[in-house]
Amino acid sequence: MRVIPQVSTxxxxxxxxxxxxxxxxxxxxxxxGSWQVTITTTRGACDSGSGFGLQVRNGVVYGYGSxxxxxxxxxxxxxxxxxxxxxxxxxxxxxxxxxxxxxxWRGSGSRGAxxxxxxxxxxx
Length: 124
Prior knowledge:
The protein has about 120 residues and is mostly beta strands. The chain has one domain: Quinohemoprotein amine dehydrogenase alpha subunit, domain 2 (Lipocalin, Beta Barrel). Helices cover about 5% and strands about 55% of the residues. The chain has one helix and eight strands. The protein has one helix at about 5-10; strands spanning about 35-45, 50-55, 60-65, 70-75, 80-85, 90-95, 100-110, 110-120. The longest helix has 7 residues, at about 5-10. The chain is globular. The N and C termini lie far apart (about 30 Å).
């Protein structure tokens, strides 16, 4: 069954991966570039181990595919992101340091509420 792997568990939480500060959308950000995010579900029936790519440009997080992503990464690496697709939604926060980072996420979708952690690595 493919439910946009709970939108890659809403692609989140990486996405939820990647984002918080609201003021750095104008200047280059040290975390700008391509990131690969892996989601782990620790509670609920959402898919786990899903991976997806994200792009950070001027501190703003962009996703690829059929889900909507909004979020920011501050110059100090604090992240906050929201992801949605249809009736599935998730949000996450955490911190990037250097070329990696991680945090936690929460979401809900067709199989109920889920939560877990995310890990991201810079790919470009």
